[in-house]
Amino acid sequence: xxxxxxxxxxxxxxxxxxxxxxxxxxxxxxxxxxxxxxxxxxxxxxxxxxxxxxxxxxxxxxxxxxxxxxxxxxxxxxxxxxxxxxxxxxxxxxxxxxxxxxxxxxxxxxxxxxxxxxxxxxxxxxxxxxxxxxxxxxxxxxxxxxxxxxxxxxxxxxxxxxxxxxxxxxxxxxxxxxxxxxxxxxxxxxxxxxxxxxxxxxxxxxxxxxxxxxxxxxxxxxxxxxxxxxxxxxxxxxxxxxxxxxxxxxxxxxxxxxxxxxxxxxxxxxxxxxxxxxxxxxxxxxxxxxxxxxxxxxxxxxxxxxxxxxxxxxxxxxxx
Amino acid sequence: xxxxxxxxxxxxxxxxxxxxxxxxxxxxxxxxxxxxxxxxxxxxxxxxxxxxxxxxxxxxxxxxxxxxxxxxxxxxxxxxxxxxxxxxxxxxxxxxxxxxxxxxxxxxxxxxxxxxxxxxxxxxxxxxxxxxxxxxxxxxxxxxxxxxxxxxxxxxxxxxxxxxxxxxxxxxxxxxxxxxxxxxxxxxxxxxxxxxxxxxxxxxxxxxxxxxxxxxxxxxxxxxxxxxxxxxxxxxxxxxxxxxxxxxxxxxxxxxxxxxx
Lengths: 320, 261
Prior knowledge:
- The complex is a heterodimer of chains A (320) and B (261).
- Chain A is mainly α and 320 residues long.
- Chain A is 76% helix and 1% strand.
- Chain A has a domain at 30-246.
- Chain A has 16 helices and two strands.
- Chain A is globular, with a radius of gyration of 19 Å.
- The termini of chain A are close together.
- In chain B, helix 3 (95-101) crosses helix 6 (119-138) and helix 3 (95-101) packs parallel to helix 7.
- Chain B is built from twelve helices and ten strands.
- Chain B has a six-stranded mixed β-sheet, with helices on both faces. In chain B, strands 2-1-4-5 form a four-stranded antiparallel β-sheet, covered by helices on one side.
- The longest helix of chain B is centred in the middle third of the chain and has 20 residues, at 119-138.
- The A-B interface holds A 180, 183-184, 186-192, 194-195, 197-199, 201-210, 216, 220, 262 and B 50-52, 71-73, 75-77, 81-82, 84, 88-93, 97, 100-105, 107-109, 111, 113-117, 121, 124-125, 128, 164-165, 167-168.
């Protein structure tokens, strides 16, 4: 029964309902800001669900693609005269192309080797962004132009505050991203990915071109990360190379694994927890980081599959 | 006209000749068994034919095409499928999904259509699901379709692997110990299934330790010992072959002969 409930439609319904209803309980407009950050992180993490949860591959460099998406929105409007929305699309295409080129050689590697190689890629991108100071402003960052959609909405009578607009817009992007990821799960491509995750040798014998499908997952997840970076840049109207940094890559993977990398909803929950937990833990003051680390360790020790899948298993186990 | 032809196949592992100069052929719909003591090189031979290992010497020819050292997914496209001695089930998939995954070559299409769940993608999924259900019924797992694959018994997993391999609609099927770990009833079921599949024109190459089964269903038997072919022929001739009896069959062969007589 629980299996039925966790089908595609239900997941999307839960997600959309939470996004729509949560604002009624927000004590201040600050929470819209936290919400939109959760959605932006959730989008990148949903991409990682496809790479880690479906295909069983790891990347510690996906913030590199977020950096590409973010800086595309900052640079393309200035230098190419593109609208920021088109700049985000250009960033996604560029990320896809780079993921294709980088993925081919590094996805031959497995486990730690793949982790280290992808880590190297992320560091490379953030180094370029920091060092090309004439273009990117270096570590000080640079301004990002206004998306302009809010003004259009205002003209047609929908008047949202800036934080409200970004809450709604990134919430919508997350639901769309989740829909695509869930479609993929039950599709022939998703089955090929999960097959090679289960057993590469058996996947090959049923005709799955393992190298090709790993690359497909890598490219798709790179596009997710890129769009997530673009949304972050556009809503902050300012961007620094930290978006492509090592810590951001680690955060993404941690969110996915903590919430449950095999489940879209779980990974988004992970994003929500790790985005809000630091704010909640400020009551511990200087022990904040310590508490955060402790929570992460405890979850991984006692809930190896991640929060949501573990809890779902336990409920199902009790039901039987 | 032979469908699959093995010529002088050989491979070395660290100076050890694991398999050397093995050759034989399969006609359409024929069941050929490879037997021999543990370590004789049966699974290694399978791994070379199915593209898991690259042979150092010799050729594999499928339907006139040289397929030596071709990667497994290319072999699958040419109609060669296999099962594994130590099960290779897609964990964390249901029984049905495992069988559907076997339809990969028939259901794959554009990633774009899959992401957006376009009608074309749904049609492909539906077609392979219908076919998978029919295959599961055929191997007696129809009722277990929605279960997690990991919840099945060993014998049932063996049958699931066969269903998955059949999903490919293969012309040649390599079965590595399909009856290992199965009870007498299950063995008989697998026995029937193999005979049926062969009757439909699929050539079957079988590695199996259950001698009664091998003698019963094989058209032709190849005997390996220390990586070399020491005999081949019809089951009755193999059971009488003194070299085979000495190398491997021993008491088992005399038993089978007595049972026949």
